[in-house]
Every structure is written in C-alpha cells, then in structure tokens.
Specification:
The longest helix has 23 residues. The protein has one domain: Sandwich (Immunoglobulin-like). It has 147 residues and is an alpha+beta fold. It is elongated, with a radius of gyration of 18 Å. It has 1 helix and 11 strands; from the N terminus they run αβββββββββββ. The N terminus is likely disordered.
C-alpha cells in the first residue's frame, strides 16, 4: 500500500513539474528603460492561442489580473498607473464572462521620474490561459537599470 501511495505521489509531482515547465515556454518577459520617454517597458511575448489578463478584471469572475509590485526606491517616483497596450475584450469560456485580455505581444509601460542612477526592482504576478484552460498563476521578478 505504501509503495502504491509513493508511485501515485511521484506521478503527481512529475505531472505538476511538466505542467509548470510547459507554462514557462508559453511566455517570455523582457524589461527595458526608455530614457527619452522616462518610462519603463514590460513586454510579454505570448505564444499563439495564449493570453494573459488585464490589470483590470472583474474579480467576481475568477481570473488573476496581471499585477506589478515595485520595491521601495527613493530615487524613483512612479507617475500615474501602468498603461496596457492592445487590450481585447472577449467572452472567456474558462470563467463564463467578458474579460479584457492581452495576446501576442503585450506591452505595459510605467512613466517615472528619477533623480540618480539606480536599479528598479519588483515582480509581476500573471496568469496564462488558452481556450482549453489556465495554468496556475506565476510570478516573475524584474530588475531594470536606470542610468
């Protein structure tokens, strides 16, 4: 009985790792500072058929909105909210409602005011879905040099 439990548990762990690893292949994040525009750009390249959710979704429907968290940095002031580019409204079968998503190349920008060279650090919480289902939410850390 113990051997059967071990085999089942091992199989579940392997499936979870395979599932999580698969999700990492569906999105590639990049970050850059545009000095001329004084803004930080967060770019997500999504494989075909995959999408992530806007920062502004109806929380009653259930998906995890894309969320940016910044570490405290006295050399940087964020101006306004993070802008999203190319939001598309769909009826999402996974959650049974109308939601704003981003597909293809998703670009988010944050205007800033900065005083001295520094490194902006933080993280992004996001959730990937396709028409069949969703991957568990994931977090990616970022570091962007301002100089």
């Amino acid at each position: 009985m113990l051997k059967m439990f071990y085999n089942v548990l091992s199989s579940l762990v392997l499936v979870m790792f395979a599932f999580a690893a698969n999700g990492q292949d569906e999105i590639k994040w990049s970050f850059q500072f545009d000095r001329a525009e004084n803004r930080i750009e967060f770019k997500a390249e999504l494989k075909e058929h995959w999408h992530l959710y806007s920062q502004h979704v109806d929380e009653n429907l259930g998906p995890i909105p894309t969320e940016f968290t910044f570490e405290e940095n006295r050399s940087v002031d964020r101006i306004g909210d993070i802008d999203e580019q190319e939001v598309k409204t769909i009826f999402d079968e996974n959650f049974g409602g109308r939601l704003d998503i981003l597909e293809g190349t998703a670009i988010f920008t944050q205007k800033i005011k900065w005083s001295t060279p520094t490194i902006v650090k933080g993280s992004i919480l996001y959730m990937l879905c396709d028409d069949k289902g969703c991957l568990p939410p994931d977090v990616i850390d970022f570091e962007i040099e301002l100089n």
